Amino acid sequence: MARVTIKDLAKASGLSVCTVNKALYNKPWVSDVTRRRVLELAEQLGYHPNRLAQSLARRTLSLAVLYPQFWGHWFDPLVEGVRQGVNALQDHNIAVQFRQLPGSPSCHHLLDVLADLAREGVDGVILCSGYTFDISADIRQSLSDRTLPMVLLGGSNSAIPYVTCVRADARRCGRMAGELLGLLTGGAPAALIIGQRDIVDHQEKVE
User: Fold this and answer.
1) What's the sign of the alpha-carbon dihedral 154, 160, 162, 164?
2) To 10 degrees, the CA torsion angle through 143, 144, 149, 155?
3) Closest CA to 142 of 117, 104, 107, 116
4) Helix, strand, coil shares, percent, the chain, to 5
5) 125 with 97: CB under 8 angstroms?
6) Are 169 and 156 in contact, with CB atoms under 8 Å apart?
7) 73-87: per-residue pLDDT in tens?
8) 0.70 cut: is pTM over it?
């Protein structure tokens, strides 16, 4: 079945392509009556926007992925997942740069990198959060003032202002580990070795 286009909607409605486009994408200078009419017709005919065409029509979306050198066994699979997601979007006018940060970088170093990215005009950052910052209020404010939206990957960090975080359910992981430990030891005394107490994910696993 041929794809329904805006031209098809314009022909069926007797409206111009320009008017149909405005109605579909909630642009001004279209009456509510006309907007409802176009939207109802689009649903009837099975119109779906061509996301690929839209992405090619806009400017390139520039993203940066920041990840640390340490804990490669943990962060490497996460970064590989990002690469796979980027490859799936390679036809959608998106440019992505990957930057590996030095081991245990200070928050000041991260600020410098973010400042560089802002000057380059990057639209957003994916940050693999493996850092435990004990930062001052002025550094926290400086991070908050950055115009770069950030998504944290692999762990949350309350010191870094971010849009959202993608990570494992640490409490569920901790419950599973506790159950297995109980089964293996039969209730005998056992030692629990964790990472760092100031990492939120580790705190939740212990809880």
Assistant:
1) positive
2) 70
3) 107
4) 50, 15, 40
5) no
6) no
7) 778 888 899 999 888
8) no
